[in-house]
């Protein structure tokens, strides 16, 4: 597959992840106010993120490998599954796809009466944060540890599910469910990143607070991806 088509798949897949996952948080999580049965809540947002990866992987996996996440690309490189020369192009495509989705989500959300983004609030426009910008007020240390550990295990699941000895055709299901589980654990802590492109996509529109904390949502997931890739490779599972 040509590099242009692979990058287009990463662009579109990351676009879909941000639009679906962050869109569910912005538009549907609290629809109608607290206690309204039509609002999907934390559980619905977690499932939405999992579904974007599951459906995106089936749509684009055969084209680009369906990373949709700089931490996944870096982790797969560390695990011997992805060439270093493709890292930067993939990451650029992922960030641009996510940013376009963030922009389109902003245009949709702005169509509701009274919509505004209060950057001082935790989770504003589905942004990630720690301290005052953490949904549960979690510290920077707790947020960093959470993002590193969960991203590392996400890579372990990805590499295991896509291994040549794993059951064929089921990898997107395992990966999507893993991302759902990750959100169920960490939405209260950081609003869940494990993906620098997803964090960047909404921080661009969420205000200076989210942008000032964006460093953590690059550093921690990339470190976690490296750890997960190295650990799985060390376990002796040969690259696919």
From TrEMBL:
The keyword S-adenosyl-L-methionine is annotated on this UniProt entry: no
Signal peptide range: none
Gene Ontology MF terms in the entry: water channel activity
GO cellular component: plasma membrane
Transmembrane segments: 38-60, 87-109, 138-158, 170-189, 215-235
Subcellular location: Cell membrane
Record-annotated site: Involved in tetramerization or stability of the tetramer: 22
Stated family: Belongs to the MIP/aquaporin (TC 1.A.8) family.
Protein name: Aquaporin Z
Organism: Stenotrophomonas rhizophila
